[in-house]
Amino acid sequence: MTRTPLILVTLALSLILAGCGNRSIGNKIDDQFLGPDVSNSISRAHADLASPTSRIVVTSYNGVILLAGQTPRAELKDLAAQAAQRVRGVSKVHNELQVGRPTSLLVRSNDSLLTSRIKTQMLADSNVPSTRIKVVTENGIVYLLGLITRAEANNATALVQSVSGVQKIVRLFQYTN
């Protein structure tokens, strides 16, 4: 009995938030399924891509895939990108995998903290459309994805540059102008 009101509230909140961006609800739902589909495709491409020697973070935004993380060999990096590109619904793959050992738990914790600090500052800045920007941090590198204007992208980049601990910023935006 308590699940029904919770489901209705969640659905209502989703519909309200869906109006905050340029993407349709369908695009958002597609992205929710696309990431796991790409991860599965990569895992099936080679045993080392699914083993603890590789750490691959897959992010999807509007059909654009970001591959971040680490894998032990360059040929595995290329194989992961090829596997991602073959998944239906993928329009573009940004292969930002680094060749090397997976990052430590401490590095990943720092990355999570950095992402939280960036998103908090974005929420507080009216010049940055935080609901239309996805922030992914991997090994101190901040990746920005979204469907925004060039001016909004510049504002977001300036904000991220002001956050302590950012090693590098990679803009993977799709521009509306």
Overall description:
- It comes from Pseudomonas xionganensis.
- This is BON domain-containing protein.
- InterPro entries: BON_dom, Lipoprotein_DolP, Transpt-assoc_nodulatn_dom_bac.
- It holds the Pfam family BON.
- Keywords: Signal.
- The chain has 177 residues and is α/β, with parallel strands linked by helices.
- It has 2 domains: 21-99, Fe-S cluster assembly (FSCA) (GMP Synthetase, Chain A, domain 3, 2-Layer Sandwich); 105-175, Alpha-Beta Plaits, CATH 3.30.70.
- 46% of the residues lie in helices and 23% in strands.
- It has helices at residues 3-18, 25-45, 74-85, 105-124, 150-161, and strands spanning 55-61, 64-71, 92-95, 98-99, 133-138, 141-148, 168-171, 174-175.
- Strands 1, 2, 3 and 4 form a 4-stranded mixed β-sheet that branches. Strands 5, 6, 7 and 8 form a 4-stranded mixed β-sheet that branches.
- Strand 2 (64-71), helix 3 and strand 3 form a beta-alpha-beta unit.
- Helix 2 crosses helix 3 (74-85).
- The longest helix is centred in the N-terminal third of the chain and has 21 residues, at 25-45.
- The N and C termini lie far apart (48 Å).
| Overall residue-averaged pLDDT value | 89
Strand tally:
8
CATH fold naming of the largest domain: GMP Synthetase, Chain A, domain 3
Q: Determine the number of helices (DSSP H or I, runs of at least 4 residues).
A: 5
CATH superfamily of the largest domain: Fe-S cluster assembly (FSCA)
Helix fraction by DSSP (H/I, runs of at least 4): 40-55%
What fraction strand?
15-25%
Total number of distinct structural domains: 2
Please summarize the sheet with the most strands.
Answer: 4 strands, mixed
Low-confidence runs of at least 5 consecutive residues? 15-20
Gyration radius, in Å: 17 Å
String of helices and strands:
HHEEHEEHEEHEE
| Oligomeric organization of the protein chains | single chain
From the N-terminal CA to the C-terminal CA, the straight-line distance is 48 Å
